[in-house]
Structures are given as structure tokens and as C-alpha cells.
């Protein structure tokens, strides 16, 4: 028996035990309450510092070196390379048939469709008929492949990959000349024709089974429409490199478009660095996005009417769309981002844009911040430029100028968009700087500013922008498109430890052009000897 128990009165042991139990329960409750208080305080502090404009200092730097942005991003030793790195046989002399496709949409959408068509032809061992470019409903343009791209260069550049013809040839059978007709699935009511339609983002297996079976049966198939009809993510680096060879080497604009674009770039660059901005604030995109509330009642009627006529019915709430980054940036928001990053009113800007919706009132705030604005019409007002910048031709010129600019900034990048391909092209063209606003991250900051909470606005914008990529190599994460970022399949390192990433012995940036030039020169010499 202990001394404590010895001096304890009778019945005191049970009472003490009961009191201790109560104290333990009390201390437990207090500890839980304290932990909850600390956790809620930390959460509030984090939420407050990241979503409001009373932004205190953080671990992130609040400055961006604008001077460095005028130079290309750090490549990390990576170089563009779409040359095959494994056995890649030339197409057989006899194919399984002819593949026709109709590429719908705008310039970028058609461009990706052409890349997919070449790959589909390779997969099926088909002879590709020069892709048809749909007359664009927005631009009212029917230039076609011949009017925009260098057909001769396209066919020659890809002769080691696929056979390409300009039209399905006639064949002789039983002494009679007959033209092969591409297979189409006929509807029950003639003359309505329902074309063979691949599923959206169709897997390779669809082409090696369904499409190939019809091709072998009929000699030719016609796939229409052909937008996003082949899966982007394919676990075959050589197939992905073929896409890059098409996109960045074979698809060259016609010489007069290239020459005109270079003239504009030379004039802009004669006065120093310049930035290009794809200001996506046109009626079609605003209608598609469902971002109406900032417009007048009359303008909203126009947008809603356009949406009803061109897009599927869907209930869209502006505040929700904006919060998740689905609304295009307004011209004023673009200006505020650039100013927060550190650009001043001496910055020269080339605007690639159609007719901006809502009139000049949306451009005034932007112009007041950045008065040195140009487009292809203001840089060169000649008749030559006017005649060659109508419809898709104008979009092609803008594409080239944006490709060659020191900095490129899209205000709304996404599927089937001008900026989608351009970002990937600039990455492949030497990791050229791109400013890609995080619309979702910036949305609450702009909302706070509109409510009058402007303290720390620019620092908050910089903090968001510092988390974005400015054009260097980075891992592709869904939903980023392969056409926006073809790293690492279409890049290599001369001294990479991984053999799959090591550059082939040829000059990766010139091998395809040199190969084409050699064959063209050889053909010209043969023709001269024949004559």
C-alpha cells in the first residue's frame, strides 16, 4: 500500500478517478477545438492570400524580367527533330486503295486534319488524295489546298512517308476507261448521300479494320467531315513524328503568302522587337463560349441568335463560365496583364484578329495602355496586301507574322483554334516565347478589381503568370493538345543519355528540306537531259 493511498479517506479513490476521467475528456475537447481553430486559421490565411486582392508577400518572386522575354526560352539542350529514329520503310509501290478526306473548319482545324489524314494514309497503306478544304462558312472562303499551300512541296516532302496524288486516277478495265469512286454509305432516300464518318478521336484500330475493309472492297473511301477524327495521343513516337513532319515541314504556305508575311515582319522589326497577340474577341468565339453578360441587351440578342444557329443548345451561366476560364479575355484584361508583367506603352504590338465584337469601346482601354498597335492593313496598305489577305489567306498571313514575332500571346487557346497550332509551331521553331494567361487563375483577381478591390492587383497577376510556361520544353498534360506541345516526341538532345531522345546523325532542322531539294534538283536535271 502506498503512502498516498494510506492517507486517503474512505471513498476518495473513486471520486478522484471520476474527476480525472472528466479532466481527460475536457482536455481532449479543448485540444480538438484548438486544432480546428489552427486549421481554419491556416486555411483562411491561404485562401485570403491566394484569392483576394489583399495579397501579402509570398515565397514566389513578384517580378518578371521583361527583357529576357524578348529572347527565346531556355531549350534545356533540346532541338526540334521529326526525322524517323527507327526503321521507317518507304511506302510500297502498290497501296490498298485511295483515301479522300474533307477537312472542315478554319485554318488551324483544317491544318490538323491534314496531318491526321497523312497519318491515316500511312496506317492503312493508302494513297492519299490531296485533302479537300471545306469552303469556310465564317470566312466565306473557297481557296482550297492549291490556293493556300505549296502543293508540289507538300507531295515531295512526304514521298518517303505516303503516296499522294492530286485526284483519283482513271483505270482501264476490259478496254474501257473507268474512274474509281470513293465509297460512300448511301441513305435510304436517294440522292441523299451519307459519307463514311469516322468517330471523333477514332483509335488506330478503326482505320485498320472498318476503314481498311471498305477501302479494299471499293478501292477508295471518302471520310467526311474530317476534323478531330484520329486520336491525338498515340503510343507510337514515329507516328507522332510523322505528324510533325507534315505540320512543320510539308505544310508550307504558297510562296507569295510567305513573301508577303516576311515583308510585314521586316517592317515591324525595323523598329525593334514586336509582340503579336491573337485577340480572340469575335462573335463566333464569344457565342461558342457563352459569355454574354458584358454586352448590351441588343448585342446579347445577336450573340444568342448566332449560338442557337451554330452550336448545340446548352445552359451557360456567365459567372460560372468565367470562373473556370472559359471566357475569352477582353482587350482591357489583356492590357492589364501585359502592364502587370512589366510591358510599357512603348511596346509594339501586332494584332491578329477578325472583326472585334462590341465595337471600339472594348478596344479603347487597351489602346490607351498600348498605343503602338498594328495589323497587316496598317503595316502595309498596298493593293497587293489587300488582294492577298482576304478570308483564309489573311489568316495565313497573320499565322506567319505571329510565328515569326518575338513574343506571341493568345487570349483564348483551345481546340480548333488559331493559337492551338501556332503555339506548337513556335515551340518547334526554337522555343519562341509565348505568354499564355491562366484565365481560370486570373478570373477571381479581375472580379475583385471590378468590385473595387485593387490593392495588390498587379502583384497578384504576376504571381499567377509566374506559374505558367513561357515557351520552354514542358510535359504535355491533358487537356493540352499534341499540336500545341509535341515535346518530347518531336525533339531530341545531341548527348541524351536515353537513346530514344538522342538526335539522329543528320542535321535535325534541315534534313527534310535538304532531302527534298536534292530530289527536286535531280528531277530537274533529268528533265533537262530528256529535253
What would your notes on this structure say?
- There is one protein chain.
- The protein has 21 helices and 16 strands.
- The model is unreliable at 1-21, 36-62 and 186-194 (pLDDT under 50).
- It is an alpha/beta fold and 531 residues long.
- Strand 6 and strand 7 (176-179) form a beta hairpin.
- The chain has helices spanning 3-7, 12-51, 66-69, 107-124, 144-148, 151-157, 204-218, 237-250, 255-269, 283-289, 297-310, 318-323, 331-341, 364-369, 376-379, 383-387, 392-404, 418-428, 439-450, 457-465, 511-530; strands at 79-80, 98-103, 127-129, 132-133, 163-165, 170-173, 176-179, 185-186, 193-194, 220-223, 275-278, 349-352, 373-374, 407-410, 433-434, 491-492.
Q: What is the topology?
A:
Layout: H1 3-7, H2 12-51, H3 66-69, E1 79-80, E2 98-103, H4 107-124, E3 127-129, E4 132-133, H5 144-148, H6 151-157, E5 163-165, E6 170-173, E7 176-179, E8 185-186, E9 193-194, H7 204-218, E10 220-223, H8 237-250, H9 255-269, E11 275-278, H10 283-289, H11 297-310, H12 318-323, H13 331-341, E12 349-352, H14 364-369, E13 373-374, H15 376-379, H16 383-387, H17 392-404, E14 407-410, H18 418-428, E15 433-434, H19 439-450, H20 457-465, E16 491-492, H21 511-530
Major sheet summary line: 5 strands, parallel
| Low-confidence residue ranges | 1-21, 36-62, 186-194
Strand segment tally: 16
What Rg, in angstroms, do the CA atoms define? 30 Å
